Structures are given as C-alpha cells and as structure tokens.
Amino acid sequence: MTRLPKIKFALLSLLLLCGELQAQSLYESMRPPKWNSYIFVSLKMPSSTLIALAKESQQAGIPMILAGFEGNQTSIGTTRDRIQSINSACCGKRGGTKWQIYPQLFERYKIHEVPTFVLAKGDSESPADFVKISGDIALADALKRIAQQSTQAEMRARAKQIYTKAFINN
C-alpha cells in the first residue's frame, strides 16, 4: 500500500468532508498566483494590425481573444479561414499564434475597444488584480508601459519578465 504524504492526505480529507470546490480553493490558496495575459482583438481590425499583433502574440506566447465569430454568429468557417490567413502571414511555418473565442473575458475585463492588452493575476474581476491598456500600439510597447507605469509592483515585474523573455532574449 502506498502512503500519501501528509499534505495530500489533508487535501484528500478536505475533498471528502467539504466537497471538491472547497478543497480546490484550499489547494489554490497554497499555490503562487497564476498569471494570465491576453490580447483582445476583432477580425474587423485592419489585416496589417492583426498580422503584427499575431506575430508578437506568438513570440510572447499570449493568446489573441475574440468576442465571437466573424460575420454572422454561426460563421465558424469564415472565422477559421481568416485566422489561418493571419497566422500564415505573420508566422509562416512556425505555426502561428493561439486564438480563443471567449466573450466572457471581454465581460470580465470590461473590454470595449480593441486592441486591448490585459495582464491579470489569476481569474479575478477585481481591478486590483489586473491591468489593461487599450489603443493602437504594439504588444511590446504595452508591456513596457505596464512595466514602467503600473502602480502595482507585481504587475510591473511580470510585464518586465514577459517583455524580456519575448523581445530581448529572442
């Protein structure tokens, strides 16, 4: 019989006594915060802008987020074709960037214009846990602004880390 370490046993006991959601909450509270980064875009933006953002997105490993399908709400084929075209133009055989259709993220971070860049600690909706910058700027410039101007030290450090890894060390 395999003996579980005490911490795992404690979490397992909580899982059985309190339910899975509460046990995950305890587990999550013991881990360092998970960072999320997003580039919010629309396929209605100029192709040249989307191609440039997709290149930086791929370089930094940050997904491009769409609010929905291009054209009518069921136009997955048109959306897929447009994304493939942008990925091909930006990144060639390197595979392109990752895209997500995730309207709930637009709501969570109150995105009303694109492009918008978001750096968030966890999945919180609290303004204290994320920073966003909107405007027709490059990802590298958005990260530099966050690194230089954010009032939160953790946000400045994380933005600098992403910028350095994606744009200085490459």
UniProtKB/TrEMBL annotation:
The keyword Signal applies. InterPro entries: T4SS_TrbC, T4SS_TrbC_subgr. Keywords: Signal. Residues 1-23 form the signal peptide. Transmembrane segments: none annotated. The keyword Signal applies. NCBIfam families: TrbC_Ftype. This is Type-F conjugative transfer system pilin assembly protein TrbC. The gene is trbC.
